[in-house]
Each structure stands twice: as C-alpha cells, then as structure tokens.
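Moderator note: this is an archived Q&A kept for reference. The question asked for a predicted structure of one protein chain; the sequence and the answer are reproduced below.
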Amino acid sequence: MIRSGWWLTAALAVTTLVSGCVTPPSPHQIASGDSLAGRLTVKVDPTPSSPSRNVAATFDLQGSPEQGRLDLSTPLGTVLAQAQWAPGKVALVTSQGETRFANLDDLTREVLGESVPVAALFDWLRGRPWAGAPSTPTAAPAEKGFQQLGWVVSLAHFDEGLIAAKRDQAPTVTVRAKIDRQ
C-alpha cells in the first residue's frame, strides 16, 4: 500500500466538502473539461483489520474521466502528490517517485484501501449524477441530492460550493469538497 499518497485517492474520490469563501459557478457554467479547485477531505471509517484513514488537502482537478490530472497540495501550495491519467496510463507521482496503475479505481483502492468512483466524481462535483450509471433522487426528509453507485450525494449546500458523498457499505467512506474556483 502506498502510505504517502493514499490521501491522493481520497481527493479523487471526489471528492467532497470543506469550508471556503468563493461561490462556485453553477453546474451549467462548468464544462466537463474545465478544471475544479478547492478543498477536499476523505474519511474511511475503521474496520476490524484497518484503522480509520483521513485525508485533507487542497485540490486542482483538470480534464475528464478519460484524461486528466489531480494535484493535491498543502494549504501553502506545496504539491504533495499528483495523479495523472490518459488512455493506457494511470500514475501517482509523489516525492518518492511514480507508481502506475491499471485504472483510477485500482489507484484509489491501493491508496485508500477502498475504491472511489473517480469517473462519477467529475459529475458529482458539478452537482449532477454521472451519466454512466442509474441514479435516484433522494426523497424527503433527506437532504437534496441523489443516490448512485451505492453512494448518497448531498447537494443541500451546493449553492455554497459544498458537496458531500457518503458510502454506507462497510467501511463507511465520506468525501467532502468545497469548490473555490473554476
């Protein structure tokens, strides 16, 4: 397991909610190839065989599920890790070098111990379900959002740039993001 870069996958997992000041553009203003930046936290609850894992970083997500890059940085801007992907190549680059993976799901599984649906995160961070799988709107009294791929995506504070996605299947995984700018 890659200990120094597991939080990178957390950042991919999509993602997805922390505090910030800038109001994000609406989902209609961000094209799928544009970049998203902000703050990201990922929490994986403990299991009998592994401790809890938490990641917090600023992120800059560029591209699409097919080709792109995710930079994770400290609050002062130092890049901690970078995930890069294109057809036939998925790599995690840290200060310890580059590690290649078969796909983004494998990268997140290796880094976090759990797979995070990176392809879906591109849409979830834009406040909409991913077109690649069925989804169901959440019903009252639940917060505004939808269910997809075993995750509940909350859009209750999307107008403030906050998105949260939670997978209740053990171990519980929670991704929170605060979108700062395009």
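Archived answer notes: Residues 6-181 form a domain with the outer membrane lipoprotein receptor (LolB), chain A fold (CATH 2.50.20.10).
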